[in-house]
Amino acid sequence: MSLDADGALAQAEEADRKRAAGEEASLLGIPVAIKDVLNVTGQPCTCGSQILQGYVAPYDATAIAKLRAAGAVFVGRTNMDEFAMGGTTENSSFQVTRNPHDLDCVPGGSSGGSAAAVGGGIALAALGSDTGGSIRQPASFCGCVGLKPTYGRISRYGLTAFASSLDQIGPMTHDVRDAAILLEAMAGVDPMDSTSVDQSVPVYTAALSGDLKGMTLGLPQEYFVEGVDPEVEAAVRAAVERCRELGAEIREVSLPHTEYAIATYYVIATAEASANLARFDGVRYGSRAEGGTDPIDMYGKTRAQGFGEEVKRRIILGTYVLSSGYHDAYYLTGQKVRTLIRCDFEQAFETCDAILTPVSPTAAYKIGEKINDPLQMYLGDMFTATVNLAGNCGLAVPCGKTSTGLPIGLQVIGPDFGEAQVLRVGHAYEQSEAAS
Amino acid sequence: MSWVATIGLETHVQLRTESKMFCACSTGFGAAPNSHVCPVCLGYPGAMPVLNRKAVELTVRSGLMLGCDIPFYSKFDRKSYFYPDMPKNYQISQYDQPLCEGGGVDIVLEGQARRIALTRIHLEEDVGKSMHFRSSSGVDFNRAGVPLMEIVSDPDMHTPEEAIAYLTALKQILLYAEVSDCNLEEGNMRSDVNISIAREGATELGTKAEIKNMNTFRGVQSALRYEIARQIDVLEEGGRIVQETRRWDPDAEMTSSMRTKEDAHDYRYFPEPDLMPVVLTEAQIAAWRATLPEPPAARRERMVSEYGIPEYDAGVLAADKRVGDFFEAVARASGNGKAASNWIMTEMLRLLGDQEMEISDVRVTPEALAGLIGLVDSGALNSNSAKEVFAELFAHGGDPKAVVEAKGLTQVSDSGAIETFVQQAIDANPQSIEDFRNGKTQAAKFLVGQVMRLSKGKANPQMVGEMIERLLSSDD
Predict the structure, then answer these.
(1) Cis amide bond preceding A92, omega within 30
(2) Which of residues 224-253 of B touch A (CB under 8 A)?
(3) Residues near A73 by Cβ (< 8 Å), separated by ≥ 6?
(4) Dihedral sign, CA of A171, A174, A177, A182?
(5) pLDDT tens across A149-178, in order?
(6) Count H helices, E strands: chain A?
(7) Given an 8 Å threshold on Cβ–Cβ distance, is B45 in contact with A38?
(8) A63 by DSSP, 3-state: which?
(9) Residue B137: closest CA among chain A residues belongs to which residue?
(10) Looking at residue B365, what DSSP letter applies?
(11) Which of A52, A283, A327 lies closest to B45 in CB terms?
């Protein structure tokens, strides 16, 4: 979306100086691409939307400030679906992003720019944000690693909010070790984010033992159902077998409320988004439409021009589910089902350490193929959105390719603050695949 | 059959915090526009609120003073509507689980005591201020995010006078609790009123109108008087009251319609996902309760019984907590509550008023005033001299004994010295003796005045009077 060459070169020179002076830091001089939804001082932050044209961030997101302190260099900003709403990056109002494994295919989304940059070898690492699968699904489509940490693990301060109770920042990398390093640099409680959790940050790289001895991994029957592409299912089942060979015990688990996840997700996420996006009104920053006759008229014109179709669709849906007379039937019911989905995971994790599933029912598809069928597109989130609703963590790791050469992703789901164990599973699998 | 009005008030009170409700920006009044702002209170992308614990404490403190229940669990909600003065286009407020529930305000009106019931108190953030210029408009966001507590009364009042008594008592209690400066000029206390009219004896309330945002008590009173008369006129002419929101125009002295029920906002409340719920413990609430001051109504009663002062005096002295504190310090140090009350009521409050000073600016200390009362009580100083000393203490402060000595005001109570003055006065006014013997008793008073003049006001007037009386009566 934008390149900050001068800023990056200055940061790189600073890193060189520090290195020459013998200073060490976990990411000293490492370039990281940033999804255009995170505030970095002095850089634009469009969120893929016309309405934030001209906005320059006056502050660093906490995750950015932590990476900066660890020596990272911020080269530029990656494309995304507008306000992180979408699963193909086709909803960006500025650029088309293509899948590096097949240029006619979508990179997934909403963090499609970050996934394509890493999967295509342009970036060493990138940050994404994940509200319903927006890190894991594009990582899976582009053949890279993507982690959605537990809600509260990384501060959301400075992450432009889509759905505040679901959003998390996470790393997108070439391998699991890199993801562990980035997570460690960004994790921890933040006084600026009341929902960040005061829980000690482990040395995640120390958990990467290379084997799965003593671990129990769950397979939820609800994630291997009709609608899952047979090639995807076969690749994931092969990965499960590999985990068994690495020493894990495999056991069936049940997540019975999975079928309600998509409906629940689209009620809660859109409700929160309808309020979160209300601030984009042309009064204080971003673009403003000309010709407004009074403030309300100016808002209407600004928002009609500034927001794309999908964003408008979700704002309207979210406004509807919160409106008087419908609030209880939709929003309140959604919150109750959300609790049930969370209970599903809590019960499942009583009998296993992590859960293995496909990231997405399919591999990447053609640009334009589903853009006019939002419902079909929403169903693609069914295996990832459950984790956002429950609040725990999920890791996407590449697990082979389709016959046409498109990457397939394995999802390793962990309990709350179970990042160390999902990284251990992902790493052991990834290393054994690489060796075979 | 006559009409009965039913009135409920929603009063927004700015809390006395250094920083705003969700960020570190100052709450200071009168700064240059948009100088107390940051990404959080401007609603920038990605900025998140962090709750000001002090605002919670002050709200709970208010609730405890007002006899509210304090639930252990409370939460914040988003209230959505679009307006340029609101940075996020939603206000963080509390919908169904406020910090305080129930409670009441004790009022006395025309000698009748009653308690106005409260519904709830919740905490929310203030909005910015729209400013209109010749060809453009702007918004000053300094006030955006300033903590406000909204105190909601039940529809439990029936006259404008009751509403004013309620607001006056409420303000007094909040000042006692030190939760707000209650500075009306700075908009620290703004009220919306709900008002409806029904036939006397009717079991159902009439349709209500809401009048928005009055920042003076007089405004509330005038608006209520106008609105009651307007609604009665409409009803008596056979019309119907429509449920609507009205604004009060203080210059035109009338209310006018802002929007009807059909145009009412649907605020689409839902729990604020960026903030954790407020969970209070019994121990925390008890610790806050332990620091509460005595409420003004209880204090008035105690002052009457403890210091033997009239109810009226207690009312005046307790109206301002600082005046009450001053009085009690003087009364305790001097052991003479009546005199302490007299000095403060007749001299000090008058001088404060004349010179537009606050009691916090006063130079005379409670110890000094107690000392002055002691000098009078011991007969060392007569009351005229004492007033002179008080004026000196008020103007410059200091120790009353030192002032008395410097001014040479020590009362002469030595009978030999007084007799000398009396003899001088009688010798100079032989006519007065004649007058007295002819039954003109005021002649004795004249002579007392002469003695006081000769003694430059220092003679003990009581001793002078007795001595003159004795001399005049015995000399025949």
Answers:
(1) no
(2) none
(3) A8, A11, A12, A15, A29, A30, A31, A32
(4) negative
(5) 999 999 999 999 999 999 999 999 999 999
(6) 14, 11
(7) no
(8) helix
(9) A295
(10) -
(11) A52
Main-chain phi, psi angles of A113, to 5 degrees: -65, -45
Residues of chain B with pLDDT under 70: 1, 409, 474-476
Whole-angstrom CA distances from B206 to A54, B169, B198, B201, B232 are: 53, 27, 5, 12, 11
Cα A189–A192–A198 angle (5° rounding)? 20
Name residue B267's amino acid: Y
**B interface mutation test: which of A55, A155, A284 has the most B CBs within 10 A?**
A284
Task: Write the pLDDT tens digit of every residue in A241-273.
Answer: 999 999 999 999 999 999 999 999 999 999 999
Determine whether domain B415-474 maps to CATH 2.60.120.1140.
Answer: no
Cβ distance B26 to B38 under 8 Å? no
pLDDT recorded at residue B1: 62
Per-residue confidence (pLDDT) for residue B475, from 0 to 100? 53
Residue A194 and residue B50: Cβ atoms within 8 Å?
A: yes
Token pair in block for residue B175: 């000042």
Structure tokens at A53: 């044209």
In degrees and rounded to multiples of 5, residue B359 shows phi and psi of -60, -25
List of residues 6+ apart from A68 with CB closer than 8 A? A11, A60, A74
Instruction: Determine the pLDDT at residue B358.
Output: 85
pTM as predicted: 0.89
Structural domains in chain A plus CATH codes? 2-254+355-435 (3.90.1300.10), 261-333 (no CATH)
B49 interfaces chain A, CB cutoff of 8 Å:
yes
Residue in B with minimal Cα distance to A271: B270
Question: DSSP states of B392-457 as a string?
Answer: HHHHH---HHHHHHHHT---B--HHHHHHHHHHHHHH-HHHHHHHHTT-THHHHHHHHHHHHHTTT
Domain spans of chain B? 10-191+266-287, 294-407, 415-474
List, as one string, the DSSP characters of B46-64: T------HHHHHHHHHHHH
Q: What is the average per-residue pLDDT within A129-155?
A: 98
Place of tokens 């859109």: A270
Residue B434 CB neighbour total at 10 angstroms:
11
Predicted local distance difference test score (pLDDT) of residue A67? 97
User: Can you give the length of chain B in residues?
Assistant: 476
Q: Are A207 and A423 in contact (CB under 8 A)?
A: yes
Element (H, E) at A328: none
Contact status, residue A196 vs residue A152, Cβ threshold 8 Å: yes
- Determine contact, residues A130/A151, Cβ cutoff 8 Å: no
Q: Determine which helix (DSSP H) or strand (DSSP E) holds B14, and give its type and residue range.
A: strand B3-14
Spatial CB neighbours of A173, under 8 Å, sequence gap ≥ 6: A118, A124, A125, A126, A144, A145, A146, A179, A182
| Confidence check: pLDDT of A384 > 90 | yes
Chain-chain contact of A296 with B45 (C-beta, under 8 angstroms): no
Cβ atoms A387, A395 nearer than 8 A: no
Q: Which residues of A touch B90 (CB under 8 A)?
A: 275, 278
Contacts of A39 in chain B (CB under 8 A): 44-46
Asked whether the predicted pLDDT for residue A53 surpasses 90, the reply is yes
For residues B128 and B398, give the distance between their C-alpha atoms in angstroms, rounded to a whole number: 47
Which sign does the torsion angle of CA B124, B128, B129, B132 carry?
negative
Catalytic one among A110, A129, A140, A274?
Answer: A110
3-state secondary structure of B164: helix
Q: Give residue A376's pLDDT.
A: 77
Q: CA dihedral defined by B429, B434, B440, B446, rounded to 10 degrees?
A: 10
Look at strands A145-148 and A168-173 and give their pairing. Answer: antiparallel
Place of tokens 């007084």: B418
In this structure, how many other beta carbons lie within 10 angstroms of the beta carbon of residue B350?
11
**CA contacts within 13 A on the Cβ side of A428:** 25
